[in-house]
Known about the structure:
It comes from Paenibacillus antri. By secondary structure, the chain is α+β, with helices and mostly antiparallel strands. It has 13 helices and 31 strands. The chain has an 8-stranded antiparallel β-sheet, with helices on one face. It has an 8-stranded antiparallel β-sheet with strand order 27-24-26-25-29-30-28-31, covered by helices on one side. It is globular.
Amino acid sequence: MTTEQINKEVEKRRTFAIISHPDAGKTTLTEKLLLFGGAIRLAGTVKGRKAAKFATSDWMEIEKQRGISVTSSVMQFDYSGKRINILDTPGHQDFSEDTYRTLTAADSAVMLIDSAKGVEAQTKKLFQVCRMRGIPIFTFINKLDREGRDPFDLMEELEEVLGIRSYPMNWPIGQGRALKGVYDRRQSRIELFNGDDHSTISVEDVKGYDDPLVEKVAGEHLYKQLREELELLEVAGDAFDMEKVSRGELTPVFFGSAVNNFGVQTFLDNFLKLAPPPTPRKSETGVVTPEEPKFSGYVFKIQANMNPAHRDRIAFLRIVSGKFERGMSVKHVRVGKEIKLSQPQQFLAQDRDIVEDAYPGDIIGLFDPGIFRIGDTLAEKSDITFNELPVFSPEIFAKVVVKNALKHKQYQKGIDQLTEEGTIQVFRTIGFEDTILGVVGQLQFEVFEYRMKHEYGVDVALQRQPFQFARWVVGEHVDPTKFRVNSILCHDKNDNYVALFESEYAMRTAIERNEKLQFLETAP
Ligand code: GDP
């Protein structure tokens, strides 16, 4: 395959994640997007998944058996000459470190916000990971058919809470019951929301907002308001600046209503124009671009026991460069061995199809008999190692107690394997040698307990600890006695120092008292 052919495939691809707080409408939006790709079968699958969530007890059982985030998968569809990969970031009870890691496989993000609620906690956390990576972020403000907050208020919140400037691509004409439609600022047209009959949504070209048609549609009162607001945006709002969008400093904002399929197509069309094709990734020996003809990729997630009948694991690999072909041999760089990729899977919601070939931006699932770890690099005739996967700071902590001391060997094996899979992070307290687990979501603890019992035969008890933050401590002369007030000093699995803090105040105090040390949010 020539570089030119690979380039053509790369140019076609868009790989992104939707970030939001539960109930903002992510399932609904995903479903509508899939429908545009003609993937109706998949849309049904998304719904099925959702319905299954409510049967909490069954769902928990399945989730535990399968490891964490069985619902987080990759959906691929074609639309308007593009091949689109949506990375599903688990956002409900199964929120975990996996959610953060999945974001490293995305080239851009869509931030979905409920117009009545604004920026919520989980959105904020996910946004911060996107910000750290400097990827473009597009905003969809949903549920315009309900009484929501003032659009200016919402923009101000994006700026104040997230520190990102915004550029409204369209602007609501009324809201809730009074919603008439949106005015498309970029393409100078109006999209009409036809009241009760939501199915017929029409689009009319206009000559700016002075066009009499706009006034006719809006009615006198709303039109006056719309004019004032649009004028204010022109005078006081940010200009559209593609460079800033690319760096994730300015977010294009779209208003709409996912459930009514209102504004979704406009969003998708614009998103596909503005979002980047697969972007380069950093390796220890420099940046690797997608056009590089040799195949390479990295594992960003490992999912255990997808099929309870076989205890297999699936390693999710983001392709960074070159072309993947089924049966090809690649180097598993960490272990220094050639392996043959003969059983690759692609994930279309819950279905598994065998992939014959794939390109940068695509995600493939590799059958994993236990040889992969999070962050592993696979590369064709090369020794590159990607370093795209930071270890994120956990937010919940518990001390582990083994109920049967005789099981110590299995316990250690379980701890090692589950740490490798990225299910948990393990810290040892200095002096006492207690084992403290750190996770991002509560479900990770439950999965840990369940799998220790069922896969390793070890009963463990978890005692919640009052810590809320972890910081990796780097520098000379780290003194454990300085971490005794509402904090504790530990080692991570690589013997790095990590301090756990009970409060932000405790953390700030420690930082002030240890001026010569660095406190990092991700592992060094
Ligand atoms: P998720 O938790 O983010 O996946 O959210 P869902 O897609 O399940 O949506 C949560 C609820 O909001 C559901 O009852 C949806 O029907 C509803 N919903 C989604 N989009 C809209 C919208 O545009 N308007 C209104 N009124 N409800 C919506």
